[in-house]
Amino acid sequence: MAEHLNEIYISVLELVNSGGKIIKEAFSSKHKNVTTKSSEIDFVTETDQAVEKFLIDGLKEKYPNHRFIGEEGVASGLKCQLTDEPTWIIDPIDGTMNFVHSFPNVCISIALLVNKVVEIGIIYNPVLDLQYTARKGEGAFLNGNPISVSPTTALSDSLVIMELGTTRDEEKRQLVRDNFNILQTKCHGLRALGSCALNMAHVASGGADLYFEFGIHAWDIAAGDLIVREAGGVVYDTEGGPLDILGRRVICASSIEIIKEVIPLLKQMKNERD
Ligand code: IPD
Ligand code: CA
User: What residues are paired with 251 via a beta bridge?
Assistant: First the structure.
């Protein structure tokens, strides 16, 4: 399988680079074809759908036995089923709201899981040309150069990313406000950049020290999970248990010390699993 994974990695990188070109070409257009999904601020564009189809078609042609969990496929009614079979978990554009507004924090996020373990993770922002990659046990890279998390171990020294999410649900909005208020005076600063996958990539490359979010999906976090861990960071469920990739919650940091410090402070929320 290891040799096979080398070949798979090369193939998927080629596809991701081509998928990135589709995003980059559409990025500046003022006339994106936008529709809504779970809420009035949860968007999908024809580019999200085109890139997901492009990636899945390309991978299916080479690996007909592989399975797929894609954000837009699930949105259109496909089941989100994770088995031990080789499975690609794909977010064709993470940061769709950013994409709609031509705010350049957008990426493809794609991961290959075998026996439910992430073997390959790629997060690619084609607009800013930032490609984060990891293979299990082989470290994490940005544009081919090794990356590692920051040396920060205290919340008081941390730059923290949290997100506002893509829902108008009042319970979720209250949770965001509460956690914002709790953390505001306990860390160096708070950021919300609109892409879960890129938030995790920022933790992996040392630009941020902590990121957490409630309500995310498997396709937002699968690649980031491996990239953060391969960069020396830690990834957990928001209550401190092991990350449940379908569990709709994530917290990751440069160090376990920050996680231990922040978890008792956070207000928690549960979502229905993917
Ligand atoms: C969203 C982004 C956003 C996060 C949301 C996600 P999408 O994904 O990752 O940062 O706050 O929870 O749904 O809709 O842009 O693919
Ligand atoms: Ca997403």
Answer: 212, 236
